[in-house]
Structure formats: C-alpha cells, structure tokens
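Subgroup meeting minutes
Present: P.N., E.W., G.H.
Scribe: E.W.

1. P.N. recapped why we're keeping a running log of single-chain structure predictions: easier to compare across weeks, and new members can see raw inputs and outputs side by side.
2. G.H. added today's entry (273 aa).
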Amino acid sequence: MLLAPALVVLTSLAARRWGPRFGGILVTLPIVAGPILLIIALEHGGTFAAQAATFATAGNVALAVFALALIVAVDRVPWWAAMLIAWAGVLLTDLGLTQMQVPAWVALVAAILALHGVQHLLRRQRNDPVVATRLPRWDLPARAVATAVLVLTVTKAAEWVGPELSGVLAPFPIALSVVCAFAAAQTGRVGLVGLLRGIVPGLDGFALFCFVLAVTLDRLPIWVSFTAATALSLVLAIALITIGHRDAPTDSARRDQRIETRPPHDPDRHAAP
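Output recorded in log:
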C-alpha cells in the first residue's frame, strides 16, 4: 500500500527533473509486482509461487499490449477512454494466457518478442519535445491515491483466483497506468510516447525478474531467489539509464538544434528581449 504510491510519486518527480524516459525506466522496477509475488511465496510456498511467476513472465505480453493500445488510441479518443481500451486489452490477454501451460523460458521469449515489437513501433514515432506545463498542487497526491486504489483492487482480485490468474495479475500495470494516464491527460501523445520510450525497454528487466523467480523459487530459499531477481532487474535499469544518458544530446547541442530549426525569416529574430 505504501510502496506503490511512493514509486509513482518518485517516478513522477524524476520524470520532471530528468525527462519522461528516465521516469519510465524507474517505474518498471518490480516495486509493485515484487511484493505481490513475495506474499504469494510466503503464504503458499515456493512451488506455487514459481508457477505464479511463470505466468507473471508471460504477463509481460499483456504489458506490451497495454503500451500498444495506448499508442494507437491516445490520438483517437479521450485519455480515459484510451486507458479503458488498454486495460481491456490487458485483461483479455491475461485471460488468454491462463489457458496456456508453457515453460518459463517460452514465456520469457514471448514476452521479449512482444516488448521489442512495441519498441520498434516507438522508435518510428516522432520525437517531439515535451512542453513544460505548470501542474496543480494536487497532482502528486492524486497520483498516490489512484495508485493505492488500483493496488487494493488488483490484490483483492488475486486473492480470489488460483496461481495462474494470480501470476498474470501480478504484473498488471498499476503504476504504469497511473503515470501513463496523467501523462496522456497533461501532455498528450508527446508526453505519453516519451514515457513509453523508457517504460517498454525497462520491462525487459521486469520480465527477467519474473523469469528468475519462476526457475528458482522451487529450488532455492525465497530470499535468495528474490535477491538474485531484484539485482538483475536493477542492473538492467542502471544500464538503460547509462545508455540513455550517454546518447542524450548535450545542452549546447540542444541549443544549436533550436537555432537551426528556427524559421530563416523570423521577423522577431533580432527583436529586443
């Protein structure tokens, strides 16, 4: 109840300070699904939790569907309708995944292929800058409350179902939904695409987190499995942040780019400030 809202608030602050891609990477850390799978392991044992983690790995396919639905719908319908469409896509995909019994490695391959397909689509989107807007004071508290409500809803639903649906519900886009909804409502397609450019690559690390749990929880102590899975996801997140920082244009380059893209016959170009 406290970790998920805290993740959303910190992610939102990081996105304002360092850009939406940075915030998108942070929000994919397993701070929401990780505790859910840990509770499942402590309450039901390693074998049950390993099965749930296998379905959680496959559940990353539903997260790819979530991102794809938002990309397609954000310009066509209001932001709240786009979220409903994305959630419907997630739930339908999750229900389909519960009907399949596949090894953990097959679930991982399917998840990686789906996520990289969406990454390819994101690379083809326009890279427009996000226009800074003054946000209301209630913005961060509203994000925290919305996240808490989603956490309660998903965890209660997970209590009523078996390991298959519990597993695919574990990666339900709780924090992702909140940050994406606010981005779509406040900055439109530009802000949402910028956020997804960090989220979708970061989900590779989340898929690996679930996969490590799936193949180790029934063989190793719970704390060892979760430590190894968390370390792997953190290493990948740091690598993505490092690569993004290295590839980001410098301030002088951004200034040069603004000068070069200015219309050549701007009447106010030489006007006094």
